[in-house]
Amino acid sequence: MPRCNPLNFAGKIAFSSLAALTVAACGSGGVASPLLADLAPAGGADATGVLVSPDGEEIGQLTFTQGPRGVVMRVDIAGLTEGWHGIHLHNVADCSDGADGFKKSGGHINPDSVEHGLLNPAGAHLADIPNIYADADGRATAEIYRADVSLDLRDGLFLLLDDDGFAVIVHAQPDDHMTQPIGGAGARVACAAVSN
Fold it and tell me: Is the pTM of this model over 0.85?
């Protein structure tokens, strides 16, 4: 089977005010992908996470790399339905209750108590990031930049890796970037806990 070149793809691209780029790359049903390794920066990631389904199966991986004013998150996940899926940052690094909808991960990271949504004039909060797109095989790979957050202590940035870490939640449906409280993104179908 020919290897997918992430620079020559027939996927979807979405840009946001966060300077994010989301790419639906060529998929193969498995999660162990050369794509995420190809995207990893020299020296490796500053934090990582494993995405699990509600029944605890490992279905993806995440890497986070610290930049001067935010983080670059790289996502590689399988087992989704074809189409767009909301993805958000949550307050607590706990994915132990998948059967109950990953509720232990808490709510969205929102220290400024603003409304949800990248398109919302009264938002967005720090949990809000662009949707990811899963191809016909249920595979999504993406690279997303999230400004104003950090993995270490930096002036003026929100610390993600605090005492209880944080989680990344993937939803069953797309986020419309307006509707409260989660953009109509539906059920939580994957979770990754990220902590020190």
Answer: no
